[in-house]
Amino acid sequence: MSKLRIAVIGDGGWGTTLAVLLSKKGYPVTLWGAFADYSKVMIKTRQNPRFLPGIKIPQNITITNDIKKAVADKEIIVLAIPSQYTRLTLKKMTGLFAKKTIFLSVTKGIEVKSSKRISEVIQAELGPVKLAVLSGPTIASEVAKEIPTTAVAASNNKQIRKTIQAVFSTNRFRVYTNPDVTGVELGGSLKNVIAIACGVSDGLGFGTNTKAAILTRGLAEISRLGKAMGAKPETFSGISGLGDLVTTCISQQSRNRNVGELIGKGKSLKEICRHMQMVAEGVPTAKSAYALSRKYKIDMPIIKEVYHLLYKDKSPRQAVNDLMTRKSKEE
Which residue in 74, 116, 130, 191 is the catalytic one? Predict the structure, then answer.
């Protein structure tokens, strides 16, 4: 298995972290970035100063801006690009990869235009390719520093998920398997929207009680939608559900929580995005999640309020008031 050739598509913090992890295990890794000038900086410095500062990129990782060079003859192609750019990047790969290639999505988002999960986008563009998803509470900088972390590899194919588990597992990165692709993807995507709500709570100066309420009721919303979309309810109490939700909602490094905190402090989304270098997936996913809640007729009040905060200029305090004064109900 050590001879598997792997491409990581996306030189952000998470893509770079996974490339480093794989190279340390002895896999030949190619790391692709969309911008030639930035790829040159990484080649010269052997660092990713913008997205993963302080972490050395081993010399045996090939860094390139050439998509054909990146994906040709690879057994595994890891997709680590923002959700809204996935389809465009996949179009560039058409016809360049081998039939036996496994595509692994590590992106936590939902395409806005179609409301499709990333695995669905991959299949829509590339056909019935071999497919898996890797998700969980995986803050890139912590994984890069080899802080003990867990994740879940999901695939409809048992052999594929076991292959991904074996390839990515280390003594500091423990990978479990799960056949529930829908649940794992939804948990990893929707928790970003709930994290924005937790950030708003922080920005308003609220306490632990409020955050606990958002976490638990947010998880209930995610589970309701997931069940309606065919996911297994128990997936959302696992690593890619509750585990990822807790991490993203409490971590000071969470981009989505940070966006929410700034919203809570009165900043506009336009102003926040203008100063962000990295993508906060919860921002576009709030649109997708709201659309899915309407499509499946699922009550998701926290998701709804985050959508209105981001895209309808609703005031944070009004959103809180509307959540707290809804009609009383059973848990």
Answer: 191
Burial 41-74 (b: 16+ CB within 10 A, else e): ebbeeebbeebbeebebeeebbbbbebeebbbeb
Residues 6 or more apart whose Cβ sits within 8 Å of residue 93: 67, 71, 77, 126
CB 168 within 8 A of CB 6: no
Q: What is the pLDDT along the chain (331 residues), one digit of tens a residue?
A: 458 999 999 999 999 999 999 999 999 999 999 999 999 999 999 999 999 999 999 999 999 999 999 999 999 999 999 999 999 999 999 999 999 999 999 999 999 999 999 999 999 999 999 999 999 999 999 999 999 999 999 999 999 999 999 999 999 999 999 999 999 999 999 999 999 999 999 999 999 999 999 999 999 999 999 999 999 999 999 999 999 999 999 999 999 999 999 999 999 999 999 888 888 999 999 999 999 999 999 999 999 999 999 999 999 999 999 999 999 999 9
| C-alpha atoms less than 13 angstroms from C-alpha of 220 in its C-beta half-sphere | 11
Query: How far apart are alpha carbons 162 and 158 in whole angstroms?
Result: 6
Whether 270 is catalytic: no
Tell which residue, 44, 66, 69, 47, has the closest CA to residue 56: 47
Residue 174 CA to residue 194 CA, distance in Å, equals: 25
Check: pTM over 0.85? Answer yes or no: yes
DSSP designation for 285: H
> Which tokens in the block code for residue 2?
């050590």
Residue 202: Cβ-neighbour burial (10 angstroms; 0-12, 13-18, 19+):
buried
Alpha helices in 114-207 (DSSP H): 118-126, 140-144, 158-168, 181-203
What residues are paired with 103 via a beta bridge? Answer: 77, 131
